[in-house]
Amino acid sequence: MRKLPSMQDHFFFGYGSLVNRATHDYAEAYHARVAGWRRVWRHTRLRPLAFLSVEPAPEAEIEGLIAGVPGGDWQALDQREQGYRRHPLDRGLAHAATRPVQAQIYAVPGDDEGLRHPILLSYLDVVLQGYLQEFGEPGALRFFATTGGWAATPILDDRADPLYPRHQKLSASERGFVDERIAAMGLRVIRR
User: Fold this and answer.
1) Which residues contact 84 (CB under 8 A, 6 or more apart)?
2) Where residue 66 sits, what CATH number does that domain have?
3) Residue 71 lies in a domain
4) pLDDT in tens, 178-189
5) Residues spanned by the domain of 187
6) What distance in Å separates the CA atoms of residue 162 and residue 3, rounded to the nearest whole number?
7) Domain membership flag for residue 4
8) For 144, how many CA atoms within 13 A lie in the half-sphere containing its CB?
9) What is the pLDDT of residues 132-157, one digit of tens each?
10) Number of separate domains in the chain
11) Is residue 21 part of a domain?
12) Model confidence, pTM
């Protein structure tokens, strides 16, 4: 039997692919919101694709999931989140867990000026599938509204041969939602 985190164990706040429960096996995960942060697409020399990240924003609030770090093994989670740095959430966290938790959030440090890497569509599909399943269409729409950097970032269509290692198959309605939002926002799609 898998040990669930105790009150002393730490949690992390997931705001991207970690919202999609099919991409991980974190047994204890809860709906959560964090104030004082907003999502943003980051461009670095670490890889040729945009990172979904967060940055401090006093008036912002984002939804996601908090999940217990199994066995307190931050190293395994840090491996999954390569390129990101952990930051403690000292305030602004509201969650559905039935006990107090300490949580951290992952963020990619600053943009490399002038770089504009594409967003991987197979990654975006996974993120939005998670938001649709956890928070419904209103939550998925809030994801778009509370994420910065869309206009300057093209989307690389890799659906036919997904590059994202934890890609998921979308239902016709999920795929339609993603495609409609991309079109409605006038985002540039480039073919692989």
Assistant:
1) 51, 53, 78, 106, 107, 108
2) 3.10.490.10
3) yes
4) 999 999 999 999
5) 10-191
6) 34
7) no
8) 20
9) 999 999 999 999 999 999 988 999 99
10) 1
11) yes
12) 0.90
